[in-house]
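Incident log entry.

Two folding requests arrived from the same account within the same minute. Monitoring flagged them as a possible duplicate submission, but the sequences differ. Recording both here for audit purposes.

Request one:
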Amino acid sequence: MLGFTQRTPFTELTTLHRKLDDLVEKVWGNITGSHFMTSWRNGHWYPALECFVKGDGLKVRVVLPDVDPKDVDISVVGNQLILKGERKALEGVKPEDYYFCEIPYGKFERILTLPTEVDAGQIQATYKNGMLEITLPGQGIVPKKIPVTAGMEEKALSA
C-alpha cells in the first residue's frame, strides 16, 4: 500500500527552504550555521535552539536529548557563540537494521551571532533533561525601542 503525504503551504515552504539551504551550502559552504529547522544532512544535523534576553544578558537553550554533555564544545569568537558536538549512534544497531529513524546521529555545529561581544570567562552552561542552557552575561543587550520620526514630504514636481 502506498503512503499518502498531505501537502500544505508550510511543507512547500519548508521544502523550498531546504533546497535553498543546500544550494547555498554547496556554493559557499555553511556560512551561518543557521537553519530554519532542525535538519539532518550528510551525516551532520542542526539542533533546534532559542535565544532570548534574560536580565542584563542572554539565555540560549539548545535541544540536545540523548547527547552526552562531555561531547559538547562551547566557544566564543568575537560576537559568535559556537556549539559543536555529537550524538553517538546506538551501540549494536546497524543502519540496515532500522525500519524507520527520524533521530539524527553524528556531529552537529551551530553558530549563533550575538548582538554584542561577551566575556567568555563569564559564560555558564548547564545540561538537564536533554536541554543545554547557556547563560551569557552582557552589557547593552537589553532591547531598546528606536522611535521613527516622519520627515517633511517633498512637493511633487509638475511639468
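Request two (distinct sequence, not a duplicate):
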Amino acid sequence: MKKGTKIAKPKGKLGILIPGVGAVATTFIAGVEAIKNNYARPFGSLTQMGTIRLGKRTEKRTPLIKDFVPLASLSDLVFGGWDINNETCYETAVRSGVLEQQLLNRVRPQLERIRPWKAVFSQEYVKRLEGTHLKKGKNKYELALQVIEDIKNFKSENNLDRLVMIWCGSTEVYLQPSEVHSSLKKFEKGLKKDDPQITSSMIYAYAALSLGIPYANGAPNLSVDFPAMVELAQRKHAPICGKDFKTGQTLMKTIIAPGLKSRLIGLSGWFSTNILGNRDGEVLDEPQSLKTKEESKLSVLDQILQPQLYPELYKDYHHQVRINYYPPRGDNKEGWDNIDIFGWLGYPMQIKVNFLCRDSILAAPLCLDLVLFLDLAQRTRMYGIQEWLSFYFKSPQCAPQLYPEHDLFIQLMKLKNTLRYLRGEDLITHLGLEYYD
C-alpha cells in the first residue's frame, strides 16, 4: 500500500456558507451549537460518531473516523448564509418548529447572532415561495458578484481560514442541461445575458466555485451537475458533490433494494407515497418542482436492481412515487411503501414500510458530514466531482461516462475505502481468505 496522501492540517476557522437558511439549516446550526456545549449528542453523523476498521479483523484497529483523518473541529465552525426572509436563525428555528423550545433557548445567543444576507431568488424557479429579503441587479452576473462580495466580507469579518458552501434551499423547477451549461465560457455569457436556464442555485454555485470554495448540493436542482460547473471546479481547485440529501423514503429504498437483489427476489411493483407539511412540502406542491424531486427519487431502483441483467426479476416492475403537501404534519414527514415481490417458483409476497421520520433531523447530520468531508477533500487536493460522497445523496453526481452507485452499502464502502486510501491503509475487500490459509 502507498504511504498515503499529504493532507494539510485544518488550521484556523472554517466558514460554512448556506444558501437557504430554513428548517434544515437552522436545525444543523442549532445542533452544532448544542453539541459544542454538550447539550446533545451528534447521532447520525459519521464524522462525529462513526468508526473505521483498519487492517485485518484480528488486529482489532477500529478508531473513530474523526481520529483517523484530520477533520475540522466543531469549535472552529462559523456559520453564515442567505435567505428570502429577514429573520435571525433563532426566529426561523422557532417558526420551523423542528427543535424543542427548551433546547433552542440554550443556544439562543449563538442563533440570534446569525441573520442571513439578502438572497438571490426568482419565483420563476420556485413558484410557491415569495421573498422580501432579495438582492437586485441588472443581470445574473451582477447578482453573482454580489454573492461573491458577501462571501469575501464574511471571511474577512470573521477571520476565516477556509470556506465551504452547502445548498439547503428549496427544490427548483425541473431543468435538463442545455447549451448554456455546456462550457464555462457559455455559462458566463449566459449570466450576463440573463439566460432563463440559469437558476438561483447555479448563481450561488458559480460564486462559490469562482473563489475556489467547495460546494455541496442538498437539493435535486442541477446546480453544479453540468459541464460548465465541473470545468470551473477543476480550474479553481474546488471539490463539488450532490445532489439531493438522501434522508427518508429513498434512504430506505437503498437499504431494502440491495437486500432483495442479493437474494434474487423478484419485484412486481413498488408504490411509495409521502406526506409532509414543511416548506419543502409547500414547494413540492407545485408540479415543476415536484417533477425535479420525482426524477431524483425514481432513479434509484433501476441502478440497484439492474433489470437489463436480471430481466425475469426486474424488467417490468411498476414504480410509483407520490408526494403530498399536508400542512398539519409540519417537518414530521411520513412515507408509506408497498412492495410487491416474488420468490421461489414465482410465489408472491409483500413488504410494507411505514416510516415516520423528521425531515430536518435526518438532514442535519448529513450537512455536518458533507462540510467537514469537503473541507478535508480540498486540503487533500481532491478537486472536481467527489463521487466518494455519494453516500449522502439520492442522485449522486459522478463522471459522465459512469452510472451512479445508489446501493447504500457500496456507497459506504467507497467512502471508507477512500479514507483508508488517503491514510495509506489497506483497502478492505472482505475477501478474508488469508484467515484460512
